[in-house]
């Protein structure tokens, strides 16, 4: 059920990516909203079963919700709700992806993961669904192909690599976060709403040398706070091909080379120029 919903609502779900979501908890269901003022119109609703994790550590789940007949139900309800809100309320949604066995994962900045466990097909006496997403009619029309203005929502390089695990470790030093690879050969990294796609596949080594010798880039990225980002990369052991340098057009940039020879450029306005 969950994966089927993901495929149906994938375009709408992307509208929530990169946004800080407010969380409300009607008992053991979760309502995630990008705009609290439109809480009746635009939201992701999650019914049980679900599990909340921080990295791989279990925080809580819908199954941990206290029974209503407990004498301390109100106190346990508040404690349980506080633990969920502390991780989800205001969290920036970075990735939504299907998992094996039909479940779906919502990944938030900072390593918080909300796993929407596939509860199977609903029965006649089960009035709720596993989860669903809702937009206002006007917003939903904007997510469907129409004659309205087209808006690109993502554009990412696909880099060929020899060893997927090695490359994932390298790009994690830059700051990207990865989910489980697809079939062991393809992985997508996420950072500040941007993506990098890694594909384990043979490369043309002659072309690699030609690109390097002629300073041809495989990807270029703009960065706010370029000096701090450069220091972060150096501290994390990223292989620097060209150190941070001022350009003729008023920015500063540096280049890195990944273990497979892919060359990436990062540039941005100097901090002094941004402050003016």
What's the tally of helices? 7
N-to-C CA distance: 53 Å
The unreliable regions are 122-131, 135-148
The helix/strand order is HEEEEEHEEEEHEHEEEHEHEEEH
Task: Kindly give the count of domains.
Answer: 2
- What is the CA-based Rg, rounded? 22 Å
What about the largest sheet?
9 strands, antiparallel
- Structural classification: alpha+beta
Task: Give the total of beta strands.
Answer: 17
Q: Give the neighbour order of strands across the main sheet.
A: 5-4-8-7-6-1-2-3-9
Shape: elongated
Strand content: 25-35%
Describe the structure.
With 276 residues, this protein is an alpha+beta fold. The chain folds into 2 domains: 2-142, no CATH class; 158-275, 2,3-Dihydroxybiphenyl 1,2-Dioxygenase, domain 1. Helices cover 25% and strands 32% of the residues. The strands form 3 sheets. The protein has a 9-stranded antiparallel β-sheet with strand order 5-4-8-7-6-1-2-3-9, covered by helices on one side. It is elongated and about 70 Å long. The model is unreliable at 122-131 and 135-148 (pLDDT under 50).
